[in-house]
Design brief:
Blueprint (H helix, E strand, L loop, with lengths): L20 H23 L10 H6 L6 H22 L11 H11 L2 H14 L4 E7 L5 E7 L10 E7 L6 H4 L3 H8 L5 H12 L13
Antiparallel strand pairs: 1-2, 1-3
Helix pairs in contact: 1-3, 5-7
The structure holds manganese (II) ion (MN).
The site of manganese (II) ion has 7 residues, from helix 1.
Length: 216
């Protein structure tokens, strides 16, 4: 079964003014669409991988045949990253987090404000294209990391609790080169309910043996 582009869970103008309609349309339909198309094209050469979820493909890149490894890394990663990204945002989102993810943020970073500052700083400093994440470690702790390109924390044995896309395609039409302004505004559309569900999946240890991010 081929990988499929999941529909946006809201209208393409629903996150205005934080994310403008044109950026959202291009980002979902064209960029994410291309990752799915290119992932499927790469996998055509290796029918044995047809049953694997995108998460499983990028979890162990060394198991991917060398001739398609880079394509799977970039496009499989792009597919997993963006499938998460649409769901961890929502209209009228934002505010302070609640639930267990708020507890771990307070415990690890002192306060939500301090966490946001560190997360935004890491995202601003990611050189070139990439992502900034709150990632879960095998011992249950969490940390802020950045990844280049479409690399996902799963490839490093970490759990992607949530991340923000700092590729220029995510913000340039509205924010131009002002990435820090985009990073600061993005919190207004964050969906803490969805992030708490992902955090619960991480705490339940689902990352290791089932595609907690399954979308198909
Ligand atoms: Mn993107």
């Amino acid at each position: 079964m081929a990988h499929e582009l999941p529909p946006l869970p809201y209208a393409c103008d629903a996150l205005e003014p934080t994310i403008d309609k044109q950026t959202m349309t291009l980002h979902h339909d064209m960029h994410h669409g291309a990752y799915v198309k290119n992932l499927n094209a790469a996998l055509e050469k290796h029918s044995g991988l047809a049953g694997k979820s995108a998460e499983d493909l990028i979890r162990d890149l060394n198991a991917i045949p060398e001739d398609i490894r880079a394509a799977v890394r970039n496009n499989g990663g792009g597919h997993v990253n963006h499938t998460m990204f649409w769901k961890i945002m929502k209209p009228k989102g934002g505010g302070d987090p609640g639930g267990p993810v708020a507890d771990v943020i307070h415990k690890t970073f002192g306060s939500f404000k301090d966490f946001q500052a560190k997360f935004n700083d890491a995202g601003a400093k990611q050189f070139g294209s990439g992502w900034v994440w709150l990632a879960g470690k095998a011992n249950g702790e969490v940390q802020i990391i950045t990844t280049p390109n479409q690399d996902n924390p799963l490839t490093q044995g970490l759990y992607p609790i949530f991340g923000n896309d700092v590729w220029e395609h995510a913000y340039y039409l509205k924010y131009n080169n002002r990435r820090p302004e985009y990073l600061a505004a993005w919190w207004n559309v964050v969906n803490w309910d969805e992030i708490n569900q992902r955090f619960a999946a991480f705490k339940a240890g689902k990352a290791a043996h089932e595609p907690a991010l399954a979308h198909r």
